[in-house]
What we know:
This protein has 103 residues and is mainly α. The chain is elongated, with a radius of gyration of 17 Å. It has one domain (23-102). The longest helix is centred in the first third of the chain and has 28 residues, at 7-34. The chain contains five helices and no strands.
Amino acid sequence: MKKRTGVEGLHIIFGLAPAVALAGTGLTVMISARVKGFREAQQISAVLVVPILILLFAQASGALIFGPVLEGTLILAFAVMDALLFRLGVRLFRREEILSRVG
């Protein structure tokens, strides 16, 4: 069994966690731009948390151990997804339309 140094945890904390948070925020913005009210957006966005919690509990229990290659791949994949979500979110976001729905 390979001895863990703790560096893997730092990659997850400072690399993967911000990338996942940006992806969640981007998806939430896109969802809120499409639904009628904030309640629908909140309920749909809550579903986004489930896969993240599954990964968190799998990592914490030892059922899933991220190695450096997998961590790097996940960070890169989420960074690409963040860039795409940001571009799409900017295109979909219509401030005036959202404000008119609230009032």
